[in-house]
């Protein structure tokens, strides 16, 4: 007998047949990522948690509308993105994400200079640029998936991301020279 | 400080970045690897890009403060129609319908469409007010009893749902607590091991 890991697509099929426990398992797989994505957009743990719950609830209610279960991730993030922007519009119709940077705090338990430098550098980006960086660097989405989440063409996604990276490279150049563990 | 020039002189900046994020097709990827072996500008640009993304990735993810679980009745909350239909109001509604139907039939009989109207009037008139009151009281008592029974069932179901939700939250909290303790224990063990190592080093 061949065993294989239970895929998200399997769980989605079960959820569509009314299996709530399958959805709880799906949530447990994605909740930390969605929470951190929303935390990086909102800079508020409370808002990020509330929005995460709303996003998962909305996803559950609309899971039959998901055309391709293999695209659950981008679809879920699209819902989370919409929830976040809906909140911003309700609270600050004109400023949206512009002012959240002042509320942002570096992660606890981390070297303060590097943490502060990275946090400050991200804060200097526009909301669109910051979200592009979050989706690519922290969430690891492909460009076509990012386009699905953000609701814009791939060319726009790349433009936002690469402009942001130019700015970040300038901002973080002094930190980089002091030695950061290299990624790929 | 590193140079912040973002564009390599050979005009392959975008392809280089696509390569850095593993977004190039296999053939273009191989071509870029060959190019990088020969182009110092692009190699430097790639190096800077990787340093920048590595710096960004040093920010750790935070733990979610509270697990999200769907055992609540919010998700399974029935539609307003179903809620109405399952409530005690259904019986009242049905009774009202029956009464209205009886009134319509009665009015139709009295209006002369029935072949023997006098017989009906006499039949209706033959029931005394006391008999009518007793019959109405009996019907009302039956409906009330049925409504009370239905309400009791609804309340019992709600209490059971609340208890299930509370138990699930408690389990989630215990799991989170256990994980936190585990992290704390590992951290303390690591610190203790480090401290012990440094003391041994100092002793030598």
Question: Can you tell me about this structure?
Answer:
The complex is a heterodimer of chains A (184) and B (204). With 184 residues, chain A is an all-alpha fold. Chain A folds into two domains: 102 residues, Orthogonal Bundle (Rna Polymerase Sigma Factor, Chain: A); 80 residues, Winged helix-like DNA-binding domain superfamily/Winged helix DNA-binding domain (Arc Repressor Mutant, subunit A, Orthogonal Bundle), CATH 1.10.10.10. In chain A, 68% of the residues lie in helices and 0% in strands. In chain A, helix 2 runs antiparallel to helix 3, helix 2 crosses helix 4 and helix 5 runs antiparallel to helix 8. Chain A is globular and about 55 Å long. The mean pLDDT of chain A is 85. The N terminus of chain B is likely disordered. Chain B has two domains: 45 residues, no CATH class; 119 residues. Chain B has seven helices and no strands. At the A-B interface, helix 2, helix 3, helix 5, helix 6 and helix 8 of A face helix 1 and helix 3 of B.
Report a brief summary of the structure:
The complex is a heterodimer of chains A (184) and B (204). With 184 residues, chain A is mostly helical.
Give the tags.
heterodimer, A: 184 residues, mainly alpha, Rna Polymerase Sigma Factor, Chain: A, 8 helices, globular, B: 204 residues, 2 domains, 76% helix
Task: Lay out the secondary structure.
The complex is a heterodimer of chains A (184) and B (204).
Chain A: H1 8-16, H2 20-42, H3 45-61, H4 72-91, H5 112-123, H6 127-138, H7 143-150, H8 154-177
Helix pairs in contact in A: 1-2, 2-3, 2-4, 3-4, 4-7, 5-8, 6-8, 7-8
Chain B: H1 13-20, H2 26-38, H3 40-57, H4 80-86, H5 89-113, H6 117-125, H7 129-203
SS-based class of chain B:
mainly alpha
The major β-sheet of chain A equals: none
Within the CATH hierarchy, at the fold level, what is the topology of the largest domain in chain A? Rna Polymerase Sigma Factor, Chain: A
Give the N-to-C terminal Cα separation of chain A. 38 Å
Q: What is the subunit organization of this protein? A: heterodimer
- Biggest interface pair, counts: A-B, 52 and 37 residues
Order of helices and strands of chain B: HHHHHHH
Helix content, binned percent of chain B: over 70%
pLDDT averaged residue by residue of chain A: 85
Individual helix count of chain A: 8
Strand content of chain A: under 5%
Continuous helix count of chain B: 7
Please compute the radius of gyration of chain A using only Cα atoms.
Answer: 18 Å
Provide the CATH top-level class of the largest domain in chain A. Answer: Mainly Alpha
Poorly predicted residue ranges of chain A: none
Strand content of chain B: under 5%
Shape estimate of chain A: globular
CA(first)-CA(last) distance of chain B: 40 Å
Q: Kindly report the average pLDDT value of chain B.
A: 77
Q: Tell me the series of helices and strands of chain A, N- to C-terminal.
A: HHHHHHHH
């Amino acid at each position: 007998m061949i065993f294989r890991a239970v895929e998200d697509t399997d769980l989605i099929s079960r959820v569509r047949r009314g299996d709530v426990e399958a959805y709880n398992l799906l949530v447990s797989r994605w909740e930390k990522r969605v929470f951190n994505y929303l935390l990086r957009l909102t800079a508020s743990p409370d808002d990020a948690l509330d929005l995460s719950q709303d996003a998962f609830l909305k996803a559950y209610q609309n899971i039959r509308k998901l055309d391709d279960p293999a695209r659950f991730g981008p679809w879920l993030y699209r819902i989370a993105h919409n929830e976040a922007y809906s909140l911003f519009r309700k609270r600050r119709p004109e400023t949206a994400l512009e002012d959240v940077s002042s509320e942002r705090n570096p992660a606890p338990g981390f070297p303060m200079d590097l943490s502060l430098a990275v946090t400050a550098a991200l804060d200097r980006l526009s909301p669109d640029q910051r979200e592009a960086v979050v989706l690519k660097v922290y969430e690891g989405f492909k460009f076509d998936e990012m386009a699905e989440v953000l609701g814009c063409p791939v060319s726009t996604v790349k433009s936002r991301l690469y402009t942001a990276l130019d700015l970040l490279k300038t901002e973080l150049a002094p930190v980089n020279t002091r030695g950061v563990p290299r990624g790929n | 400080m590193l140079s912040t020039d973002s564009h390599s002189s050979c005009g392959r900046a975008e392809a280089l970045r696509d390569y850095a994020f593993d977004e190039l097709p296999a053939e273009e990827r191989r071509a870029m690897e060959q190019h990088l072996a020969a182009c110092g500008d692009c190699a430097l640009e790639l190096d800077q890009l990787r340093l920048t993304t590595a710096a960004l990735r040093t920010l750790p993810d935070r733990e979610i403060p509270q697990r999200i679980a769907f055992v609540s009745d919010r998700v399974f909350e029935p539609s307003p129609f179903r809620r109405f239909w399952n409530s005690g109001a259904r019986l009242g509604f049905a009774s009202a319908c029956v009464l209205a139907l009886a009134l319509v039939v009665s009015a139709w009989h009295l209006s002369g469409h029935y072949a023997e109207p006098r017989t009906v009037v006499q039949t209706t008139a033959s029931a005394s007010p006391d008999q009518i009151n007793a019959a109405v009281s009996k019907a009302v008592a039956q409906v009330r009893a049925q409504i009370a029974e239905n309400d009791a069932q609804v309340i019992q179901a709600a209490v059971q749902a609340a208890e299930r939700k509370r138990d699930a939250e408690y389990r989630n909290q215990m799991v989170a607590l256990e994980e936190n303790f585990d992290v704390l224990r590992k951290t303390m063990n690591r610190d203790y091991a480090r401290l012990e190592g440094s003391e041994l080093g100092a002793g030598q």
